[in-house]
């Protein structure tokens, strides 16, 4: 009897450790599903918006600084540097929404600093007809993510793994820019729960 109790206790401990270890992968699967299905409410529950806001500001400030350093001969450099903080703050406002975060997770470009390979999730496709109902241009094909879900061959490639016990890093390799992944950092909340706390945009 005691042997069975001891075996059960050991098994329970092993299962608990396994659950703690795989918990970020469960959270990542729910986040991916929410992004693919445009489920803003579920995605928002996994985002710590104040911390993500600070990480985006830092990332955009760094990108602007590096871009201006490469254009050191530009006579407007000083003026651009003065406005850099204001510009990046406005860009953070545009990026800090469940729709934009979902678009980044799907591998779409949503930053004004990046080439517009894919339209932002917050911008509707152009209408194919005017107010009178007459077609003014050929209907544009629906984007890959416009349906209720995104299939595996449409979803951007990603890799994920532990940085340390409390941090889990996701790299999203965007379509058309495989060498410039977007980095998402999730932070452990307790033992089993995780929240997205940082987004690092790639250098321009």
Descriptive key words:
DUF2939, alpha+beta, four-stranded antiparallel β-sheet, DUF2939 domain-containing protein, 5 helices
Concise overview:
Helices cover 44% and strands 18% of the residues. With 204 residues, the protein is α+β, with helices and mostly antiparallel strands.
Q: Compute the separation of the termini in Å.
A: 65 Å
Shape descriptor: elongated
Strand order across the largest sheet? 1-2-3-4
- The total strand number stands at 4
The radius of gyration over CA amounts to: 21 Å
- N-to-C order of helices and strands: HHHHHEEEE
Poorly predicted sequence stretches spanning 5 or more consecutive residues: 112-148
General description of the model:
The protein has 204 residues and is of the alpha+beta class. The chain has one domain (25-121, 148-200). Helix content is 44%, strand content 18%. The N and C termini lie far apart (65 Å).
